[in-house]
UniProtKB/TrEMBL annotation:
Keyword RNA-binding part of the UniProt annotation: no
Name this polypeptide is given: Mannitol 2-dehydrogenase
InterPro entries: 6-PGluconate_DH-like_C_sf, 6PGD_dom2, Mannitol_DH, Mannitol_DH/Oxidoreductase, Mannitol_DH_C, Mannitol_DH_N, NAD(P)-bd_dom_sf
GO molecular function: oxidoreductase activity, acting on the CH-OH group of donors, NAD or NADP as acceptor
Gene3D superfamilies the UniProt entry points to: N-(1-d-carboxylethyl)-l-norvaline Dehydrogenase, domain 2 (1.10.1040.10), NAD(P)-binding Rossmann-like Domain (3.40.50.720)
Alphabetic keyword roster: Oxidoreductase
Source organism per UniProt: Pacificibacter maritimus
One Pfam family named in its UniProt record: Mannitol_dh
Top-rank taxon: Bacteria
Length: 502
């Protein structure tokens, strides 16, 4: 397939992606077979990053290819100014996206057309609120990153003191946050008898629907307790698990899509694997996503736990040492003589024992699946991207496994070593002397603490927003102190080798 595409491009300049050019694309490129002009909206999705366009939008597109769900098209939205650049790119190409599957045996391209508009990015979010008040909008979905749900790091409850939340409380008609806009729209729908919609979180959070319910209902309660009760009773917040490795788009990806004969300013590359497991709780109806491969179940939690602990946790296990040792990609980490074996040992002996099996998948088999997916050389997923926002990902993906190990009396040495390496990474330099640029919303605080921990390791684990009361556990504290001291004295490679030799 790759050779065919290269031959095509030598004879034909890339076509600008648009509705008008769909029929002129190379025959090998799949494209919408449905009439996009006949689509009507049913979903507003807030957070139009690569993951949404390579995952949820694809599942809907596949239904549309079969003549289904034509009244469920996606209206894109964002609430941050940086979303405006993506909006401009997508509107310029009729909200089409080229998805490029990167399989070790070859690549293929598919143009997805399930999104039909992208709302303006504006202060006060008037256009977003107005769109969500329309009765045809029956689902409002979000991908706003794990740290975007205003969770108090200490209590795990709602952070009502966050400045953005305080703004929304003072200005409920002109909110700053996505959740303030959702509350404003639901107020109109309640008052005008238009009924509720489903709020669907698509971020990597355990119990993500429950967390979204907490955020939306808690924010509403600060201004209108009766509205909060109505939302809590009438709206639904299904839990879900989403899975597909989708790297960031850069020059390589832009060149790759050109190789398929397409000029797409916002292509998405992805692995040859997708999974979407959803609780069937939709108050205003839903597309038949199960017909395009999604799984509806009452036991989302087990799927979530397996994926978050082993895949998302595994990403942190390898990205942190990879960043310190200047290994640029996740596939490169898996090829590394120490980091790849480190993942296998930690995932198999310290994470998987605390993960329940799901239908047709034992934890040990899932570790092997993730090992293969991480090793895909065609997925140019950077360690920097994966290591981003450790202040959310470490407590969300790694710390729960440490707690399980402490309770069960099983090994935690490797997981604690990950924490020590994260502290070393946050000191801001790699072992080759190069600088690690800020890579966390709380980078300044983390860097100050990491440098202090070089001489006093306990200051790192005293960050209660990350570790809670773990610093008071003698086993955890002693392991962390010894690991961090060894890292600073002998380096990450030697410390990893010591662990692997045990």
């Amino acid at each position: 397939m790759d050779k065919l595409m290269n031959a095509y491009v030598t004879k034909h300049p890339p076509l600008t992606l648009s509705n008008a050019h769909l029929t002129q694309l190379p025959a090998e490129v799949s494209r919408p077979q449905y009439d996009r002009n006949a689509l009507t909206p049913g979903i507003v999705h807030i957070g139009l990053g690569n993951f949404h366009r390579g995952h949820q939008a694809w599942y809907l597109h596949r239904l549309m290819q079969d003549g289904l769900a034509l009244d469920w098209a996606i209206i894109g939205a964002g609430v941050r100014q940086y979303d405006a650049a993506m909006r401009d790119k997508l509107l310029a190409q009729d909200c089409l996206t080229t998805l490029i599957e990167l399989d070790p045996s070859g690549s293929s391209a598919e143009v997805v057309g399930s999104m039909i508009d992208y709302l303006p990015i504006e202060e006060g979010n008037a256009a977003l609120i107005a769109q969500m008040t329309k009765p045809e909008i029956r689902i409002v979905a979000t991908t706003v990153t794990e740290g975007g749900y205003f969770i108090d790091p200490a209590t795990k409850g709602f952070d009502g003191a966050h400045p953005d939340i305080l703004h929304d409380v003072e200005n409920p008609a002109t909110p700053k946050t996505a959740f303030g806009a959702i509350v404003a729209a639901l107020r109109v729908r309640r008052d005008e008898g238009r009924g509720p919609f489903t709020c669907m979180c698509c971020d990597n959070l355990l119990g993500n629907g429950d967390i979204m319910r907490q955020t939306v209902v808690s924010l509403a309660r600060l201004t209108d307790p009766a509205l909060a009760d109505w939302i809590n009773t009438e709206c639904t917040f299904p839990n879900s698990m989403v899975d597909c490795i989708v790297p960031a788009t850069g020059p390589n990806e832009l060149a790759l899509v050109q190789g398929f004969g397409i000029d797409d300013q916002a292509p998405v590359t992805h692995e040859n694997f997708r999974q979407w497991v959803i609780e069937d709780a939709f108050c205003a109806g839903r597309p038949d996503w199960d017909c395009s491969g999604a799984t509806f179940t009452d036991d989302v939690h087990s799927y979530e736990a397996m994926k978050i602990r082993i895949l998302n946790g595994g990403h942190q296990v390898i990205a942190v040492p990879g960043e310190i040792l200047s290994v640029e990609t996740i596939a490169g980490c898996m090829e590394h003589d120490l980091i790849g074996p480190f993942f296998t040992k930690v995932a198999s002996t310290e994470i998987a024992p605390h993960v329940e099996a799901v239908p047709n998948m034992a934890p040990e088999t899932y570790v092997e699946l993730i090992q293969s997916r991480f090793s895909n050389p065609k997925i140019i997923d950077t360690t920097r991207r994966v290591a981003f926002d450790g202040s959310s990902r470490q407590p969300g993906f790694i710390v729960p496994s440490i707690r399980d190990g402490l309770r069960a009396g099983t090994p935690i040495d490797g997981l604690v070593l990950v924490q020590a390496m994260w502290a070393r990474m946050c000191a801001g330099t790699r072992e080759d002397g190069s600088q690690i640029e800020a890579n966390d919303p709380f980078w300044a605080k983390l860097q100050t603490t990491a440098l202090a921990a070089k001489s006093d390791p306990k200051v790192w684990i005293d960050m209660r927003q990350i570790y809670g009361d773990l610093a008071e556990n003698d086993q955890f504290s002693a392991l962390f102190t010894a690991s961090l001291k060894t890292i600073w004295d002998r380096g990450v490679a030697a410390t990893l080798q010591d662990y692997l030799d045990r």
